[in-house]
Amino acid sequence: MPILVINDSPIKQFAENKHAVGQSIFESYMRLTNRATNGKRVTVFGYGACGQGVAACFRAAYSTVSVVDTNPVTTLSAHFDGFATPLRRDAIKSADVIVTETGAENIIIADDIPDLKDGVILMNGRHFPTEIDVAAIKASPSVVHCAAYSEEGIESLTLNDGRTVHILSAGHMVNLSGPRPLGNSIESMDIGFALQARCLERIAQQKGQGIGGGTGDCVVPVPIDIDARVAEDYLTLNR
């Protein structure tokens, strides 16, 4: 029985991971904070498809965007896309807003507190609440007060030198938490579900045989013709 990896479909990557996640993370920033983006310095950690979308959306909203990624090739891609690519510490020091989009753990940790700008907003755009080590940051001796605004999904930490750090949604995936979480756009989800339905249809039609007609299929990509059909169907509806 084949396992089709929907997330690796190029359509899924650009339609949902890049464009829809980028839009929904940006929308969540506006929804939770009601703060302007014009002229804000935004640092995006991670420049996969999701990070690319987040960086593009904040830049389109007149922010100055920096990208940090551990992969030098990916960082070079961000550079060629026109984003600043400072070293990690410099990117943290300058940021009014920090967005984590890496899929890794402990991207922002308690040791980063001395470098955080007064009033910085920390937000996570990935599925697990481990990219920002919220517990360690809140437990730091530098934190003298924590004001929780549960309805808004914001925690404001006052540091012993007077600086304030704001954490959105307790480090959880910001577009699926906080007040009235909406997640990705309906259109992007429709595309993802269409890919899933067409792949299940193909598996059923093969009656237990491999997607390629054999029996050795295991983890396989979405067939090119299914990607093409979903793309054509979407374009037909939206021309």
Which overall shape is indicated by the principal axes computed on the Cα atoms? elongated
- Name the beta content range: 15-25%
SSE string, helices as H and strands as E:
EHEHEHHEEHEEEHEH
Q: Please mark out the parts with pLDDT under 50 across 5 or more consecutive residues, or reply none.
A: none
Count of strand segments:
9
What is the domain total for the residues?
2
Query: What summary fits the major beta sheet?
Result: 7 strands, mixed
What strand line-up does the widest sheet have?
3-2-4-5-8-7-6
Give me the secondary-structure category.
alpha/beta
What does this protein structure show overall?
This protein has 239 residues and is of the alpha/beta class. It has two domains: 157 residues, 3-Layer(aba) Sandwich (Rossmann fold); 53 residues, no CATH class. The protein contains seven helices and nine strands; from the N terminus they run βαβαβααββαβββαβα. A seven-stranded mixed beta sheet has the order 3-2-4-5-8-7-6, with helices on both faces. A hairpin with a 4-residue loop joins β7 and β8. The chain is elongated. The model has no long low-confidence stretch (mean pLDDT 93).
